[in-house]
Amino acid sequence: MWAMQAIGYVRSPYRETRQVPKGLGAKHEAEGILEIRAEFEDGLQDIEGFSHLFVIWAFDRAEGYSLVGTPPSDDRPHGVFATRSPRRPNPIGLTVVELVSREGRMLRVRGIDMLDETPILDIKPYLSSVAPERLRRGWLEEAEGRAAGKR
Amino acid sequence: MWAMQAIGYVRSPYRETRQVPKGLGAKHEAEGILEIRAEFEDGLQDIEGFSHLFVIWAFDRAEGYSLVGTPPSDDRPHGVFATRSPRRPNPIGLTVVELVSREGRMLRVRGIDMLDETPILDIKPYLSSVAPERLRRGWLEEAEGRAAGKR
Q: How confident is the model over A55-83, as pLDDT tens digits?
């Protein structure tokens, strides 16, 4: 077992889960702040050179977990490790954000889908992408296809 | 504080840190197995439809942390949140792997950079990439530029 602490908190326009865009075609354009605790500010040195960051955070308002569930983007159940469900064995969230600017220990970012006051566990530089032509997105592509067929 | 448990373990050809390719131009082509614990196998339903996965894991052999350090890919120090250093406030690792095949609770994957027996904390589907033309890679690009200039 590993004990994880908050290195900072998310400042987000979303205060409740239902405010966060979900489901097929949801866009995450919201801006917010990653406020890093003063004791960890030195760890941000040179982060402003990166355009995108991985933010690893805690689903602190999720309770328990379900191994199988039906996500907002589909009407069929899938395993938790094939979804971004908050109800996971370890309550870890992962979001790729665009770094807009840094002021001291405040990182202004775009693309957040976390609630206000979400605890941040780690930040890492986003270094490379998988080429789009090599990416398969499983049940999500199928759900998108069915949704397109209904339109 | 959040307590995290292992949902499984990595089976890797790397038994020691020095065996893992590091530094500029390091390629991670190694194949290995993500062996998920039997009690979590149901959470893998439909994961085989995804070509790439995020693996979130624990640096279980790292001790303590440094807020600033010099990575293998540069001769200059950078903040820990701008690097993939194992010595982080929360010992969390993140690797994007390609899913080659699934047999029950064993996921054969390509692109691992973890040591054998590394505890896995979470697995998520890789759903989208940042367009390469929008990606800036900060100090790493500068280090690559200096290395190219020396050749």
A: 999 999 988 999 999 998 899 999 999 99
Q: Is the ipTM of this complex over 0.90?
A: yes
In the numeric block, which tokens belong to residue B23?
């530094």
Euclidean distance between CA atoms A87 and A24, whole angstroms: 19
Take residue B18 and report the two structure tokens written for it. 């020095």
CB B50 within 8 A of CB B134: no
Tokens linked to A91: 């309550």
Q: Is A5 on the interface with B (CB under 8 A)?
A: yes
**Contacts of residue A56 in chain B, CB cutoff 8 Å?**
56, 90, 92, 94
A5: nearest CB among B1, B49, B125: B1
CATH numbers and ranges of domains, chain A: 8-150 (2.40.30.70)
Across the interface, whether the CB atoms of B44 and A81 are under 8 A apart is answered yes
Task: For A122-134, give one letter per residue: b (16+ CB within 10 A) or e.
Answer: bbbbbbebbeeee
Contact B136, A49 (CB under 8 A): yes
Helix (H, G, I), strand (E, B) or coil at A17: helix
